[in-house]
Specification:
This is Letm1 RBD domain-containing protein. By secondary structure, the protein is mainly alpha-helical. Helix content is 71%, strand content 0%. It has 15 helices and no strands. The termini are far apart.
Amino acid sequence: MKSKIWSQFVVKNVKQLSIASEIRLTPLPSDAMSANRLICRHFCDKKPFDDNYVKPLSGVKRFISRQFFRFIESYERVLEKRFPKTFKIYRVFTIGAKDFYGDVVQYLQISKQLFDGRRVHELTYNELMVYMRTPKDMARVGPVLLVSALPFANYVVFPLAYWFPKQLLSSHFWTLEQRQTFQTMHHKKQLYHFRPVFRCIQSRLPFVTSEDNLREKCRLVFAALGSGTHPSVDHILDMKPVFRDKPYGMQYLKSKHLTELCRMYGLNAFPLGKRSRLINHIGFVRELDLAIDRTGIQSLNLDQIKTACFMRGLNPIELSKEEMIAWLQTWIGIAHKVDSNY
């Protein structure tokens, strides 16, 4: 039975193959062949790709595209006019996130360059500022971004971050007014710790060596500071030896003195690592001073000059640009005459 079915299947397929071969071998009429040649010649002579396929917009398409572009340009203004508060939040987070991302990328690039052998004195002022601030900014903004990535969490996190920018966001997300306000608040906290630091300095005056009249020089400078007057640059530089060795060298400072210095500079005052944190901070500030000295203060914009004054303990709010520059030049002149051992 199986052999019979198989034989019928073979016969059937052989018949189909013979019919197909007869169809293939049957010559076409002359008219059909000429028509076939014309069709083949038409498609073979035509190039499959041509530069003419990519053309500039013209006519109606060009008009529609221009109108659409103008609509997109005006759409942000419409949103800003109809929803001012919402649009302000949108601008704060979009621009801030872009600036923050750019600084993180630059921070990683600088770190790689330093690892590959680039010297610190080859960094620009802006690169040093990014390398100094980005770790703190990442520690502050990172948790906010991670929590906002959770489902529906952004509806809660972003409004909270907008209403508490000082606690939850970095300076990338602040307006110029907020930046100035927060810097002033930080400066007031610094002032609170100035007096305890000064008392620690005064308490160590008896331990200053009397050689080269150093103790008397320190006493005169401390008396001037206590009366609210600024000592001259020469008087400050005369005290260099006592700030390199005992009693005011960094390795000789007492724990209370280190704690007050950390709080004054806005650093973590946890007992472990206070000295190293202070050394790193002071080292960064000195490198910033030298970077400004290399490029000139005129290379900084007004906001950068104000930030530099705040970082060094001067409130520049009521000062003119010329006064700020003069004060910074005096500061940098001192930094230029001391080495990293002070």
